[in-house]
Amino acid sequence: MKTYLPTQFVVERRADRCIQCQVCVRQCSFDANYYDAEDDEVRSRDEKCVGCHRCVTFCPTGALTVRKNPLEYRPNCNWTAETIEDIYKQAESGGMLLTGMGNDKSYPIYWDHLLLNASQVTNPSIDPLREPMELRTYLGRKPDRVEIDPETLSLKTKLTPQVAIEVPVLFSAMSYGAVSLNVHESLARAATEAGTLFNTGEGGLHKKLYKYGNNTIVQVASGRFGVHAEYLNAGRIVEIKIGQGAKPGIGGHLPGEKVSPEVAATRMIPAGTDALSPAPHHDIYSIEDLSQLIYALKEATNYTKPISVKIAAVHNAAAIASGIVRAGADIVAIDGLRGSTGAAPKVIRDNVGIPIELALASVDQRLRQEGIRNQASIIAAGGIRSSADVIKAIALGADAVYIGTAALIALGCHVCQQCHTGKCAWGICTNDAVLSKRINPEIGAERLVNLLRGWSLEIKDMLGGMGVNALESLRGNRLALRGVGLTDTELDILGVRMAGS
Amino acid sequence: MKQILARPEFCVDCRLCQVHCQVEHSRSKDMVKAFKREATRPVARLRVEREGAESFAVSCRHCAEPVCVYSCLTGAMRKDPITGVVSVDSQKCAGCWTCLMVCPYSAVAQDKNQHRVVKCDLCPQLKTPACVANCPNKALILLEDKQS
Description:
The complex is a heterodimer of chains A (501) and B (148). Chain A has helices spanning 23-27, 54-58, 81-93, 181-194, 229-234, 261-267, 287-300, 317-326, 346-351, 356-369, 387-396, 405-411, 441-465, 488-494, and strands at 9-13, 33-36, 41-44, 64-68, 98-99, 114-116, 137-139, 163-165, 169-173, 198-199, 216-220, 237-241, 253-254, 275-276, 307-312, 331-335, 344-345, 377-381, 400-403, 481-483, 497-498.
């Protein structure tokens, strides 16, 4: 069938700079550049370009640039180019539209409507270059009250497992299978070096990475891929994945083409078969069922590891989080509307869930009202882009945040949303033997550690500016935030006052 | 002595090593000029080999037992006793291609324009050879043995 889809990008090549070296030809995994031997000339097939900039970045003479195809439809606020082209795609394929990455729609980003405070005159700010700043965070259930033996001055209260992280940023769940082993290794090595944690996602943990177990969150999802006693005990935290911000209410789907022998061995499934995780956990239909799984995992790990429960931010997130805490979870992870994915139906990614800022504020508020906020740490996820977002999330009540897309961008991701094709030109969201070599874990880990270091320095600077020397002093302190451009209802849900008030 | 180690597990077959090798061995050392204006395009001293998913850059190993030196008819090939670098004197090279045939790594290249062989000289003017310095994925690394 002839496609009616127009070309999305135009590859522009400066003839005065192109040396016909064909680096662009070999780097494009979408076949958008080719070499015409007869004319000794490198040319482009614009219609195949996805705008990932791999060729642009690798061109040694800077001869290339990629532009959006300037083609215009008649202006129409209702029938935008995206709406029209989605219909073309479905008229031609008859299927659901699949996509990758997170929601790219223009829903409000509340981080950009929240502003931080700073000390002036009446309360001194602190210079982090001269004074120690504390970012260390402990994840896990905190006791209701602390008892100290008056004679020995030691702690009488028995603490449940606590996990210390040196920077309140963890790497989100991205499964081996969706991403390559080199990406997993980059994340694991970076987490180990930076003193934080990476999350295996639902595809198990490759044997090669067990040595990074102390900095690993092992995930148990509805498909139970790669879950066994050794795996559970290899990690520092066990996370039950109920939902994912990019696709609340549905399970994962790893196509058989991505299930290589190594992925298959790690997931404990036959090679080449589709790895489908059911939408729900078939043994969890209530909070009581969830509690059973939480305690089964606690038993399996001999009560040595905090159990996290991850949900997508949905309308009743606050009430659900309350149930999760009461079910015995030590950590609640909430993944917002802008959370990313390796593959999801576009309609779900773009229309289901609520923004993390609102979910986080309402969960924190609800747990405080019920007097159980101390019983679980909160991890906010889905759309954390910068150290400013991190510190605002902490002030809104998060103990730590997950970053997924930001971490992948550090590795080279250009957010071209082709994750679901398995052809990632940056070698990230693919298990193709040629492409996955493009991530060298030595370089990957270094880039991730650099990112975390940069963010830590910025967080310390912002904390110092507010006159506090520990992240703990800011956690849940919404007076450190003011809103701009928000309605009274939004301010009310965020628990934040209007700037100027 | 210095040696270039190729790591096939990280080679992405971009062949930027070849491009930068050519530029480093060009007259102008300017990438656009070297490729577009110089009368003879320089020959790369190393070559990326690819078979399926496997690829890596093959360059001279500067062998301890350099068969190219032993077999050279004109004495153009020599191994520096101090640095260990195997180099070719282009004035003496007769273009008989004997070294090319005996090299177990096929690491000697033919410059057909000049009718002589060219080979990796580890970029004596640079601290790090151009191919290593410009490999985007650390698939080529420089090993330096301090003993000799």
